[in-house]
Amino acid sequence: MILRRSFLTKLGQAFTLLGLGAVASKTYAASEEDKTSSEFYHVVYFWMKNPDNAAEQESFLKSIRPFLAACEKDKLFTRKPYLGKPAGTPRDVVDNSYTYNLVCTFKSATEQNVYQEHAAHKKFVADSSTLWTKVQVYDSITLV
Questions:
Q1: 133: which residues sit within 8 A by CB, 6+ positions away?
Q2: Angle formed by the axes of helices 119-128 and 109-117, to 10°?
Q3: 26, 71, 78, 123: which is deepest, by most CB within 10 A?
């Protein structure tokens, strides 16, 4: 009788573990699926050659505004793009050395690739690339 109970207990534990494994694999599969449908963030930092030159700043802004408007018109973004400049926060972990930053969100990496090839994007780069010394891009997908 004791052997039978021990066997049944172990059998129950084994089925429980198998069941948890199935749940865990379903959870993992769902998270893999979420990766393909997660929002894609494209964050661009620009370091201008002459960040204090008002004419060059105006030229950059004149070039970037119609580019972003054209991409918005073609519904490439999942939300309105953000264009900003450093807040000047004086903390060791904050990099305030850039001149402008741009944050664009897309449904996926595929949509972001469409944006990269968009005529307005190419025109913006061609018209404004002489104004900056460096561009740094950080792309990410939503986890939470």
A1: 47, 48, 49
A2: 60
A3: 71
